[in-house]
Design a protein that fits this description.
heterodimer; A: 290 residues; alpha+beta; four-stranded antiparallel sheet; 12 helices; B: 786 residues; seven-stranded mixed sheet
Chain lengths: 290, 786
Amino acid sequence: MKPAPFLYHAPETVAEVLALLSEHGDEAKVLAGGQSLIPTMNFRLAQPSVLIDINRVADLEGIEVTADGTLRIGATTRQRALERSAEVAARSPLLFEAVPFVAHAQIRNRGTVGGNLAHADPRSEFPAVMLALGADLRIRGTGGERTVGATDFFRGLFATALGPQELLVGVDVPPDAPGSGSAFVELSRRNGDYALAGVACRLTLREGRISDPRVGFLSAGDRPLLATEAMRVLEGQEPGEALFREAAEAARHDVRPIEDVHASVAYRTHLFGVITRRALERAAGRAGPA
Amino acid sequence: MSGGGLWFGKGVLRNEDPKLLTGRALFVDDVRLDGMLHAAFVRSDLAHGEIVSVDTSDALQREGVLAVYTAEDLGAYWHEGPVLVPPPPIEGHTFNPATIVPLAKGRVRHVGEPIAVVVAENAYVAEDAAQDVWVEIEPLDVVSSTESALAEGSPVIHEHIGSNLAAHVVQRKGDYEAARSEAALVVSRRFVYDRGVSGSMENRGIVASWDPREEELTVWDTTQAPIPIRNGLARLLGLLESQVRVVAPFIGGGFGPKMMMFYPEEVLLPWISMQLGRPVKWIEDRQESFFATTMERDQVHEAEIAVASDGTILGVKDFFLHDTGAYDPYGLTVPINTQCTLLGPYRIDNYDSEFKAVFTNRTVVTPVRGAGRQQGVFVIERLLDIAARELGMDRVEIRRRNFLRPDEFPYDHEILFQDSAPLYYDSGDYAPALDKAVELIGYRDFIDREKARLLDEGRRVGLGIVTYVEGTGIGPYEGARVTVEPSGSVRVAMGVGSQGQGHFTAFAQVVAEQLGVDVSDVHVSTGDTRDFSWGTGTFASRGAVVAGSACHESALRVRKKVLELASEALEADEQDLELAGGMARVRGSDHGISLGELAVRANPLRGAVAPGTEPGLEATAYFGPQRGSTAFGVHAMIVEVDPETALIEIKRYVVVHDCGRIINPVIVEAQVHGGVAHGIGDAFYEQLHYDEDGQLMNASFMDYLLPTACEVPHMEVAHEETPSPLNPLGVKGVGEAGAIPVGALLAQAVEDALEGTGVEVLEMPLSPNRLFELIHGSGERSGGEG
């Protein structure tokens, strides 16, 4: 349970990080909170020859609100900071509701928002939340900064749109529309475990009808998924038990669960139906008139 | 026993806790010696195969590596290990021994079996170099399940045995077939119990240090049995027992797998230290532990019960397969415990029990907290539940009706127990404990009203209530030496190492009771062979019974010496003296003398003593019980099942426990709490998932789910005290108790919650995935491992 040998760098600016990434590329791993990377290295499943520790890069950490009400979250912002942020609570109830489901408090104290998103574990909460919220991920390379929408960022199992010489510097969460309601529902074996099934959803009620429903799933496949079938069923309809049951049924077709020691495909698929219905009921109950 | 309950029975705080809670206690990994080397093991990636080659040349070239050893390099030191527990003399039994070896030679038989050991300047280099050892293994077909082991055409794991049969045992009493022919009802079912790990907080670890000048070997070892390990190492290494000191310091949990195992690492580290002349350390990591530390519980039962129309048990018949893993060093302990514990607190006059233990290509099976008892309790309690349901009888009533009565003790079950002695129950009074549990859980109200009320709200809530008997406190013997020092402090030296059970307090209470000193003035040393040389170890819920009684006997002898000397010093009759507050005093007066002063007088530096005088206020005594004492318990639970998600929540948990006289209720309750937590893990969370190649799919605490504080409910614990007549303290064991009935309990409670759906829970552990399958269909597995 000791990692293989590696070189360690602790740069203090993004420019230095990018220079190191240019030099080492695929050989290097970026270390943020280390809550996934370090265990993987200790198991020797990952044996990067270079570790670039970005914890000393000061301008990567923090939560700001921009002029248009967007939440701008720096990559090394600790997950725990979201849990304690009045801005997050007020402006993104869905994100705020999801944070306590991320592992345990001790892990959230160290784990970072950017590290979690860049790791792209399909069982993780934030990727599904970012999909549901239509967040934009900010990526910097030697050529400058680019922005990638969450729907394009997650490319597969632990795979993202990040190039080997690029750094995720933060995520922008757009403000909720007036009258929107959201809910995060997750089922797990134990408190703090990866979800058997999880859903992040947000919808807006306009004149009694659902507008722009967003349903993101975690633990539903090789990447976080948008439940496009369920969203289609919901769009423009009046909320109600029958509709939510129909959407839940559609959700079962949106998922592509992977079997593991905890759950079969059949069980997971069933659970997505159950939690989609429960989450929609809760979100609709929270949505107010616009 | 004598003494007025000055300390005995009091819930005093534990002597060891300040040390443990402030991080000052010594654990094996805290041992750091000058020049200490580190070992890492190269282990088999395959469950079954022939070793073609092991190339250590790259590893030897890595900077910082001192040595790499394979089986060939051990020369004459390579031995097959011992059969640790010889099988009881059951007539007609078969036992085919295949014991573990220090490093695999020729064949590997489970994933994680050690093939080579690397020794380096630090653990990092040792692990790097372990990756440099190139092992080529020709794969063989794998025996990956208990039920396939004896199937036609199965691969054979031990060629010298010729099949995968490790043991075959039949124990019978009465005439089951005749009883069955008179039964109003016969219930037959197939029961499965799956495998889990012990999950000690501290993994195994060893530091061995050979001192060539002193010609003395010191071994710090996370063992539950330091004295047998000392004796065995001396024999293996050709040393005097006095040249080997084994220290089992504070240990973070034992639960069975740290018994006198003579694990490969335990045998190799001392030898390596002698080869290289430097201390060497090995600390098992969590992943290694999932492959290299013994585990338990796989059994498959085909069982039936024959009952009369009033619920009286006429007989039980059981056949089961028991998975012993790749080797069977621990003999028949686990399956015999199953066979015996199945009888429970009930009168079962006709019993026909047969088992076959089988080899599989999985990690070795030895006792884990409960040690086969869970499985027996699961079978009998489930059979009774189903029989009660089919007879339209109350499940508490069917149990009460079949209980042994208080006037039937000692009760002879007419079969042999794990300790080779006949299975006798020493004492018991079961109905009051059951009544108490019924009352505490609110059984009548729940069954008559609450359950239906909740169901009307759409909630599926059920109740479970089960009972069990645990054979505890077996021999052969333990000892203790009690010494009063000139300071008045009392030392107690004994041989049963502690893994957190509270030895430093419970044994101190036993001694303090007799000597009239404060418990905090009694200093217990246990687990260091230099301090005490005779004994076996901490296992089978026997510490308090056997070692506790030895403490009591030696304290009585010291008390006698104290009174004799004090009588002289105070010029008073012994009968007029009392021991209290560290003083011997003439009762009802201030006239007294301290124990410390008496200790000084007992060791004169000048002058003559009478011939035959023993110096000091010191005595050593041993205690060996005639046979084990049997503890009893009732557990009850209320559980809510979400039928949509198949997730459960335990709402209430009640334990009524009878372990005879209680030395310290706080410690007893803590043991029960820990046991129940362990049992909840066994019942709903912990399961090892192997694929058909014998590969373990969840070898980490991410995917092997130990219950945490969030999953373990608050427990309401009540006690009954039926003294054991077999030891002077009247105590019975409690270490394993809490873990034993939880599977049977959860199964009954979940079935009760789902009443009317036809769900029967016949397997443990029950995962939500499995419960989903049971709720939605025929019970066929839908492909998920869980």
